Amino acid sequence: MIVLTGxxxxxxxxxxxxxxxxxxxxDIAQYAAGFAILFMIVALFITLFIHRASx
Length: 55
What we know:
The protein is mainly α. It has helices at residues 2-20, 25-53. It has one domain (2-53).
């Protein structure tokens, strides 16, 4: 669940960032995808850490 939330937040953050920089629709989509992947990987490591710490 944390991973999906991270991906969603990353996509929103990337899209807003590209829109502020007056990017074209494909620029916005690329930023959204890139930040979604980045946030998803960070959230994955956070999830792994939480599961390892709870054992």
